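User: Reviewer 2 asked us to show a designed sequence for the structure in our supplementary figure. I'm pasting the structure tokens here. Could you produce the per-position amino acids so we can include them in the response letter?
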């Protein structure tokens, strides 16, 4: 795996904020396999069990809040990362209604403090991970492009839209590509992806988690928004995009210091109810019911991404179909609960082999 992404990550010091979360844990696992020196900075894993502990990786793992400027400064001063993948966030829509202050301070002020410490220590590359929910969602049938208007109905989506505005401001004010190597040495990109699934996610209010826990508790899963359409993809899909962008920034290719969408093709944009049926197809014990409570909090019904920019300029494409994505996800959880075994290594190896068969540039 060391030769993936042109071998750029071997021996690089990579700092990942939010490494104890779902996406973060998969990212540090992949980076570790490519020979990177990993520094994780995050709050403690929010669930038990959790993926990062199951992986038992030999990495530097620092428990810290991204709003703690002093601790961030100490960490960057000690480890001097070459590149930062910023994933730490308050990621839940429903919790954002309950605690908007926590949501905005973590997502906006926390990101601001990460950018400031990156600026102080002249970090070479920053890949900031936001969300497909950053767009001003008009519920239209076509996908959002990177230059569409930022917005957000709920506090979570709004906070992520604010983060994109912040990112663009820093890219113009401090990390301007026209002044690269003149007044600064940092390239900054932001990445937005669709809804991700895969083994090892036990976070609250996640559909896959709710499905799995319904099996564990021998109950039916209650679906809030059965007709809501989202761009579903395996967690490894956007990670391949993030790593692709990180490679370009480390190679000092300034045109990639920009905003990027990483989502599935249209066949991956399916309803919540279809997702549950996909799980049930591969795990027959799962059952569900529709929650018709009229007091449900607002969540978008239709949301899609236009990933033409990544397809054309990065030669990036998704590797797995939605059906195979759910099949692999179910297999991961089945093996965990029935055989006390995790399939993270197997999933990553299968994914890379399938990417090579499709001649994905990053895999060759």
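Assistant: Here is a per-position design you can include in the supplement:
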């Amino acid at each position: 795996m060391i030769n993936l992404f042109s071998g750029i990550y071997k021996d690089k010091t990579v700092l990942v904020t939010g490494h104890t979360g779902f996406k973060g844990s998969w990212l540090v696992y992949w980076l570790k396999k490519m020979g990177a020196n990993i520094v994780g900075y995050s709050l403690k894993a929010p669930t038990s069990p959790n993926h990062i502990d199951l992986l038992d990786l030999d990495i530097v793992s620092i428990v810290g809040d991204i709003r703690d400027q002093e601790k961030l400064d100490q960490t960057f001063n000690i480890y001097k990362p070459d590149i930062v993948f910023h994933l730490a966030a308050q990621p839940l829509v429903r919790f954002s209604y309950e605690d908007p202050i926590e949501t905005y301070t973590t997502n906006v002020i926390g990101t601001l403090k990460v950018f400031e410490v990156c600026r102080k220590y002249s970090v070479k590359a920053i890949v900031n991970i936001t969300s497909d929910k950053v767009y001003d969602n008009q519920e239209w049938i076509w996908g959002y492009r990177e230059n569409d208007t930022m917005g957000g109905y709920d506090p979570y989506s709004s906070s992520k839209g604010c983060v994109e505005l912040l990112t663009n401001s820093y890219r113009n004010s401090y990390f301007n590509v026209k002044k690269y190597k003149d007044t600064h040495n940092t390239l900054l990109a932001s990445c937005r992806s669709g809804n991700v699934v895969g083994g090892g996610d036990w976070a609250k209010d996640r559909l896959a988690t709710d499905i799995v826990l319904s099996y564990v508790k021998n109950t039916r899963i209650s679906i809030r928004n059965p007709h809501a359409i989202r761009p579903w993809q395996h967690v490894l899909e956007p990670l391949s995009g993030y790593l692709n962008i990180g490679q370009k920034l480390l190679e000092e290719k300034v045109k990639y210091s920009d905003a990027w969408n990483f989502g599935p093709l249209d066949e991956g944009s399916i309803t919540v109810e279809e997702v549950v049926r996909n799980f049930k197809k591969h795990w027959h014990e799962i059952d569900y019911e529709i929650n018709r409570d009229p007091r449900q909090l607002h969540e978008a019904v239709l949301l899609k991404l236009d990933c033409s920019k990544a397809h054309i300029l990065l030669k990036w494409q998704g590797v797995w179909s939605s059906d195979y994505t759910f099949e692999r996800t179910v297999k991961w959880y089945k093996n965990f609960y029935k055989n006390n075994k995790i399939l993270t290594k197997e999933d990553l190896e299968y994914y890379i082999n399938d990417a090579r068969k499709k001649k994905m540039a990053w895999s060759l």
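For the response letter, you might also mention the following. The mean pLDDT is 93. The first strand starts at residue 13 and ends at 17.
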